[in-house]
Design goal:
This protein is of the alpha+beta class. The chain has helices at residues 2-31, 39-49, 51-56, 63-67, 69-72, 83-94, 97-101, and strands at 109-110, 126-127, 129-139, 146-150, 155-158, 176-181, 187-191, 199-203. Strand 3 (129-139) and strand 4 (146-150) form a beta hairpin. The longest helix has 30 residues, at 2-31.
Amino acid sequence: MRVHKFSAACLLLGTASAQADSRDLVQDRMSRCYAIPDTRQYLDCLYGAIQPLRNDLGLPAAPQALTFTPVFARPAQQLPPSPAEAEVKTERSRSGPLTGFLNIKTQKVAAEQFGLANARPGPGVNVDRITARMKAYRFDRRTALFTVTLENGQVWRQTSADGNLTVWRNPPSTYTVTIAYGAWGSFDMTLQGDQRRPFRVERVS
């Protein structure tokens, strides 16, 4: 009996110690979010920062945890960057702290090609974001993810990695959206007047 009680006590102490370590790790991860100037991105970073505690409790990963993995990764010792790498780093720093931190691509391309994998700059006006009214929208009955058609003819679909679900009931033309580059090659869609975090989307056609 005493052996069982001793084993149980050791197990409890081990669990408590692991959770304490996780709390310290969360504090460290949260401190890395403080440099993010955008409030919405800062809040998403905090959601991702608490992932170690979610792991301890057996909870599913927060959608933001993967996006902000580079933010929480401890810097490793590296060789001095080559001149080409230094130039890329300088260019990213000019785009703002968050842009360089999350490797947000900001290349301007032809408006009609924006969002396509092979998008290239065109002879006319080039853009790094688009703003347009919706022409139509629909929700997948199984996943509840949306697909929207814009007045410019582009079709965008919410990605399965985005856990930010919504329901729209007004006519499509009452919604104006802006789609811009997101972290690590993704695209973020925001609705005019909507204060929630951006939806992660991908260009369909």
